[in-house]
Amino acid sequence: MSTKSYVERAKAHKNSAARLLLETIARKESNLAVSVDVASSVDFLAIVDVVGPFVCLVKTHIDILEDFTPQVISDLQALSKKHDFVIFEDRKFADIGNTVALQYSSGVHKIASWAHITNAHPVPGPSIIAGLSSVGLPLGRGLLLLAEMSTKGSLATGAYTDAAVQMARANQDFVIGFIAQRRMEPVDEDEDLLVLTPGVGLDVKGDAMGQQYRTPREVVLESGCDVIIVGRGIYGKDPKLVEDIRAQAKRYQDAGWTAYLERIQA
Ligand code: S5P
């Protein structure tokens, strides 16, 4: 289990997006990422503004927005500056290198121009990293590989997960870590692949569509993960209940940070 602090790790990390994330976590004393999965831009920006002070990172699914315009990106970037958080577009690329390079740089969303971090399924093999890094590396971006998933019956296990870890190790200039459920033990002192973990909830164990939740304590203390990703646990009751969303964000921030302090003092 890692007992290194986020501060120590930020100083040593070679990728600028990973460094930015680790520095932000340390500065704000928050390993909480909020996943803002709502369809209206007004609700999206309102939730980001409310949770902003409590998070190190905001995770987006920009293609969910029904009324997307480039103004949403300008507003999101302004909120990122106002509240000091990193932006992660959860695009889950999964195609050949040439196609993902176009999907990442172009189209309506132009993800590479604003998302510090994005992610990809390792299923196509290392060529997906070659495609995405051709766009993202010159911009100082970072990539997470989906080594495991939180869902019941996930196929991302065993040899598939091991192969994802190998792919990350071979591309540590651009691959900064994983979406996974546990820390992957590093092979040497220099390796620092971050683990961002979705499937986190304090009140329920899952949803009706195969999602499975564990607590921040299980994720950060017992499984050694770096960032908890919480969606509906924070705004699920009603995206308009601002006071409740603020209280939930604080609750998850405290739970994630307490678990981290307990881990590094171990
Ligand atoms: O394995 C995964 C990977 C991801 S990125 N399981 C997940 O749930 N996610 C994402 O995390 C998912 O797409 C959603 O945006 C978020 C979890 O949302 P929640 O409302 O269930 O907390």
Offer a quick outline of the entry:
Helix 1 (6-12) packs antiparallel against helix 2 (16-28).
List keywords for this structure.
266 residues, alpha/beta, eight-stranded parallel beta barrel, 41% helix, globular, binds 6-sulfanyluridine-5'-phosphate, decarboxylase, Aldolase_TIM, pyrimidine biosynthesis, Orotidine 5'-phosphate decarboxylase, RibuloseP-bd_barrel
Strand order of the largest sheet: 1-2-3-4-5-6-7-8
SS strand fraction: 5-15%
**Mean pLDDT score:** 97
Helix content: 40-55%
Count the beta strands: 8
* Helix and strand pattern: HHEHEHEHEHEHEEHEHH
Helix and strand content put the structural class at alpha/beta
Q: Which descriptor suits the 3D outline? A: globular
Walkthrough of the structure:
- This protein has an 8-stranded parallel barrel, surrounded by 6 helices.
- The chain is an alpha/beta fold and 266 residues long.
- Bound molecules: 6-sulfanyluridine-5'-phosphate.
- Keywords: Decarboxylase, Lyase, Pyrimidine biosynthesis.
- Pathway: Pyrimidine metabolism; UMP biosynthesis via de novo pathway; UMP from orotate: step 2/2.
- It comes from Mycena chlorophos.
Topology summary:
Elements: H1 6-12, H2 16-28, E1 32-35, H3 41-51, E2 57-60, H4 70-83, E3 86-93, H5 97-105, E4 117-120, H6 127-136, E5 142-146, H7 158-169, E6 175-179, E7 194-197, H8 216-222, E8 227-230, H9 232-235, H10 242-264
Parallel strand pairs: 1-2, 1-8, 2-3, 3-4, 4-5, 5-6, 6-7, 7-8
Bound molecules: 6-sulfanyluridine-5'-phosphate (S5P).
